[in-house]
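ARCHIVE CARD
Drawer: 12
Card no.: 0347
Subject: one protein chain, sequence and derived structure
Cross-reference: see card 0346
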Amino acid sequence: MNPVPPNNQAPQNSNPNARSPWLWVPTLTFSDSLPAVAVMAISVIFYKQMGLSNAAITFYTSWFYLPWVLKPVWSPFIDLVKTKRWWVLAMEILIGAALGGVAFTIPTASWLQGTLFFFWVMAFAGASHCVAADGFYMLGLNPHQQAEFMGVRTLFDRFATIFGQGILVMVAGNLQVVFRNSISYSWSLLFYGVMGIFLALWLWHNYSLPYAKEDVKHEYVNKRTIWKGFVETFRTFFTKDQVVFAVLFIMLFRMPEGLLSKVSELFLIDAGHNGGLGLSPQEYGLVQGTVGIIGIACGGLLGGWLASRDGLKKWLWPMVAAFTLPELVYVFLSYTLPSSLVVVNLCVFAEQFGYGFGLTAYMLFLIYYSWGEYKTSHYALASAMMFLSMMLPGIVAGALQETMGYRHFFIFTLLACSIMYVLAAFLKIPQDFGKREDWEE
């Protein structure tokens, strides 16, 4: 029999159905991250191999950001209807069904319309899963456990990215070798396999997810209170100090990245006569899904450590400069077109390191601007604006690249980085913001 604390309050998750966080936190983080990797990264490689133009690929796949843009709109309904545990399990079933739908429609005559539809279903289910999982972490873990497992969540988020962009793309390439370059059949088998993984995760989470005491349907919440909170969130967000430059910073700082991100992936696998590097799926999986992820993780860790030691303000300009490194690297690659995979790996590691280091400044500013009474809702709104800032440039990126060519397009994205320096010059950030002592206080 479990002892009762002196204040007669039962500890959180002390019921008989409680499960060790080690049983469910790593797998829940993995299942939360993989759908975003599938719809935003794997889909790009899939559509390129299926013969779509760069303009069509970036146009279609950039719209997959929309569910994450709209998360603040329907997240209150996830709080109102059913429990977070119910939403997590329901969305995992829906994601698995969407993966099966993608796999089933690939060999058909209407493969484009079918896969786009099921990728859309996967995107909305993945965004809803994200909302429910974020809430479940707060209900299923006590504050000490939330801090203790933050590193575990980061690790398995990175693992999901490596698994999706690296291992799965490699498997697709190997299947094409086995089945004599049958691209559609190979990708269909791959998505059936990922569907099986998600159904296994659903079965596992049915057993391992705890029934948290506070994870209940909130009967007292109604349409009026949701609408009132929604309006108040927007009102307080847009009446903060330096709102004009803050919103411009949030919306435009990542614009060069929004232009570059999908086109850079296409450049790596595009044929040499089109101006690309012509990497095979196996080589792409190694370069982007493994070496690149290690680079971004190293850059992010270094940025976070320096900001916590000296504050964001001291490292703002080095981080802004590092955020232009990806554009510089792809200008270099497009002009030299190296045949050595070692050189390509080094370049991708460098640009992803710069990206991870520079992104620290952007994410910390989102936290700084969201701080206050409605910090959770304000951060959700700022995150939605961030996804919108990535979606809009991506819609036109492929068409611009086809008009300008890879070399001129990458030079254009480099010139677009000037907006980052202009916006950063107008930001007002406290000297000590980001320091560990400041957070503790």
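Annotation on reverse: Residues 1-17 have pLDDT under 50 and may be disordered. The chain is about 80% helix and 0% strand.
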